[in-house]
């Protein structure tokens, strides 16, 4: 099968994010960048699927030259080739989904796997927009029933299951109060939740090999997409800080505070 | 007059999902600011039970679309029905609670309506045609004010940030319509409910969560939860390890809670987790490590072993009864 996977460039999730004093953006200095963790889970799931069923994983990222780092990371993990949509400047979910739609129409994959959200804007929209734009089925928040530390995890079976006739995938989704299973005809869009898998590390030979794997360059113009944003971020602010609390010496004091000060017990 | 349409959600057991009332509360706030009329939509196989509850929440009308094919929720069948309804109503805003269904459905609906969308809004600003939304980014470390410039605007609501709409108001007009069901490329296979005798995490007044420090032993946490009628939560690490079910996870990628009292036992306080519980009214942290970041957000902290503190806490609370 042919699988198209996204690899957005985001701030390292462990970074401390600070807002500029004028609220126009975040402080960039000292930040490290990574592939969006949910997308990395998507790359891993794609690799497991092609390992089991044969095929190809094509990874796509949108942004300036720097996103090639994230594409190389996915290639080092084992993805076969990459598509870079060269675009600097603002972009919103509508624009991103429209660009990936064009790439999907060009590549004709059986499956597009995206992270359920990116850890910078936390919007959780692109996969669903894409599925509607393409007229395909969607299975969002794909998860795994078993523990990630279990033996099952270690043998790296894909959690997204191809049906016996290879025309659909079965996906377990994390929803409120339980787990829902859907069957999506291919081609389809799947978005990944945290517990789908544990992404592999890129091996040294993988990193070496990634250097010679092809990255195709496209642009919004070449793809014929107008990416003028329809979502304007007017201002950023830090959340109101919680007042620093106190440490109490023992449980009796804690209960007294909860009863007489906070009045919650 | 502009129209705000809020989509309510029926749970698999037939009841109204409580977060829908918070979304209606947000819808009412938006309608007031925008000078708009509030409408509610509900779809399902048999939504009659929830219609009774919805019609006294202060909306002008409740639009009810019932069809056998809508028994099991699928984005592909629900989005076209809602898109037709929103278009016929000439809705300016379409919103829903940020439940799993809201997060799955609203972007697909927005794509159909060629609308821009704001996810998980925590606030509304402005008036008339000039409305902006406040929403969290970077795991709640940043709050952005965003403006949607498409004619139709779609949003999901972080339920913990808006008061639930109260019942008992003048009855709305109930308008039933026959949904046109489109063929779906996806089919529902099964739903496995994770049942718990304890209150739902997002609705509980008290939440007690365990982290790595529990080493997977949740007995003391569960005992205290039962004493207090509290819900049990967990950090991501604990869920990933398979020590407790995934749906107990509190955090950016799990559930967002805002109870009156949140007790974090053996949780260090990663950004991921804090994003899910920082809005709690009172936070108690129990951790052996005095440097754990959780103490920076806790109102009250105890530097000690949770296995020693929790039984003592139970005993002290018993004395109060």
Automatic annotation (TrEMBL), chain A:
Entry protein name:
Electron transfer flavoprotein subunit beta
Task: Tell me which family the UniProt entry assigns to this protein.
Answer: Belongs to the ETF beta-subunit/FixA family.
Q: What InterPro entries does the annotation carry?
A: ETF_a/b_N (IPR014730), ETF_b (IPR012255), ETF_beta_N (IPR033948), Rossmann-like_a/b/a_fold (IPR014729)
Q: Which Gene3D superfamilies match?
A: HUPs (3.40.50.620)
User: Entry's Pfam families?
Assistant: ETF
The record's section on CDD domains has:
ETF_beta
Q: Give UniProt keywords alphabetically.
A: Electron transport, Transport
Report domain Electron transfer flavoprotein alpha/beta-subunit N-terminal positions.
Answer: 23-227
Q: Extract the PANTHER family matched here.
A: ELECTRON TRANSFER FLAVOPROTEIN BETA-SUBUNIT, ELECTRON TRANSFER FLAVOPROTEIN SUBUNIT BETA
Which positions carry the signal peptide feature in this UniProt record? none
User: Is Transport included in the keywords of this UniProt record?
Assistant: yes
State the source organism's domain of life.
Answer: Bacteria
From the broadest rank down, the organism's phylogenetic lineage runs: Bacteria, Pseudomonadati, Myxococcota, Myxococcia, Myxococcales
Q: Which SMART domains match?
A: ETF
From TrEMBL, chain B:
Q: Which region is the signal sequence?
A: none
Q: Which domain of life is it from?
A: Bacteria
Which parts of the sequence belong to the Electron transfer flavoprotein alpha/beta-subunit N-terminal domain?
4-192
A Pfam match is ETF
- UniProt entry keywords in alphabetical sequence: Electron transport, FAD, Flavoprotein, Transport
Q: Which InterPro entries match?
A: DHS-like_NAD/FAD-binding_dom (IPR029035), ETF_a/b_N (IPR014730), ETF_a/FixB (IPR001308), ETF_alpha_N (IPR033947), ETF_asu_C (IPR014731), ETF_asu_C_CS (IPR018206), Rossmann-like_a/b/a_fold (IPR014729)
Entry similarity comment: Belongs to the ETF alpha-subunit/FixB family.
For this entry, the protein name equals Electron transfer flavoprotein subunit alpha/FixB family protein
Q: Which organism is it from?
A: Myxococcus landrumensis
């Amino acid at each position: 099968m042919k699988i198209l996977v996204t690899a957005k460039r985001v701030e390292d999730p462990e970074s401390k994010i600070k807002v500029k004093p004028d609220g126009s953006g975040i402080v960039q200095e000292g930040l490290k960048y990574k592939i969006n963790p949910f997308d990395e889970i998507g790359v891993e799931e794609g690799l497991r699927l092609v390992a089991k069923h044969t095929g190809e994983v094509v990874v796509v990222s949108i942004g300036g030259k720097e996103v090639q780092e994230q594409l190389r990371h996915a290639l080092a993990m084992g993805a076969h080739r990459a598509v870079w949509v060269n675009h600097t400047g603002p972009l919103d979910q509508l624009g991103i989904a429209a660009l990936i739609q064009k790439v999907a129409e060009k590549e004709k994959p059986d499956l597009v796997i995206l992270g359920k959200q990116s850890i910078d804007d936390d919007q959780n929209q692109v996969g669903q927009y894409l599925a509607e734009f393409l007229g395909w089925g969607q299975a969002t928040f794909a998860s795994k029933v078993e523990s990630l530390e279990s033996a099952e995890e270690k043998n790296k079976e894909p959690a997204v299951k191809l049906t016996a006739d290879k025309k659909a995938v079965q996906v377990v989704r994390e929803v409120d109060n339980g787990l829902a299973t859907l069957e999506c005809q291919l081609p389809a869009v799947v978005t990944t939740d945290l517990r789908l898998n544990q992404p592999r590390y890129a091996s040294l030979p993988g990193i070496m090999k990634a250097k010679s794997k092809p990255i195709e360059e496209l642009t919004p113009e070449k793809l014929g997409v107008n990416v003028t944003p329809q979502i304007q971020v007017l201002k950023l602010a830090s959340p109101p800080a919680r007042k620093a609390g106190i440490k109490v010496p023992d449980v009796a004091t804690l209960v007294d505070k909860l009863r007489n000060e906070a009045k919650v017990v | 007059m502009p129209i705000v349409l809020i989509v309510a959600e029926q749970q698999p057991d037939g009841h109204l999902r409580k977060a829908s009332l918070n979304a209606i509360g947000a819808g009412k706030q938006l309608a007031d600011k925008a000078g708009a009329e509030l409408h509610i939509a509900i779809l399902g196989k048999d939504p009659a039970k929830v219609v009774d509850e919805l019609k006294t929440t202060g909306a002008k009308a409740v639009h009810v679309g019932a069809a056998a094919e809508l028994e099991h929720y699928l984005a592909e069948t629900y989005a076209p029905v809602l898109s037709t309804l929103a278009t016929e109503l000439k809705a300016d805003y379409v919103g829903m609670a940020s439940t799993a269904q809201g997060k799955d459905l609203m972007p697909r609906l927005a794509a159909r309506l060629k609308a821009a969308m704001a996810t998980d809004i925590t606030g509304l600003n402005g008036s008339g045609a000039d409305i902006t939304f406040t929403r969290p980014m970077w795991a709640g470390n940043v709050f952005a004010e965003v403006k949607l410039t498409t004619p139709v605007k779609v949003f999901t609501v972080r339920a913990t940030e808006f008061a639930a709409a109260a019942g008992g108001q003048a009855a709305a007009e109930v308008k039933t319509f026959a949904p046109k069901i489109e063929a779906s490329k996806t089919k529902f296979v099964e739903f496995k409910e994770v049942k718990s005798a304890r209150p739902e995490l997002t609705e509980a007044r008290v939440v007690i969560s365990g982290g790595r420090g529990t080493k997977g032993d949740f007995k003391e946490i569960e005992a205290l939860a039962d004493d207090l009628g509290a819900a049990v939560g967990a950090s991501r690490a604990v869920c990933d390890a398979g020590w407790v079910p995934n749906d107990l996870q509190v955090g950016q990628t799990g559930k967002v809670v805002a109870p009156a009292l949140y007790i974090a036992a053996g949780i260090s306080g990663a950004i991921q987790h804090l994003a899910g519980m920082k809005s709690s009214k009172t936070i108690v942290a129990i951790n052996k490590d005095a440097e754990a970041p959780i103490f920076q957000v806790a109102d009250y902290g105890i530097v000690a072993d949770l296995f020693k503190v929790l039984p003592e806490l139970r005993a002290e609370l018993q004395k109060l009864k």
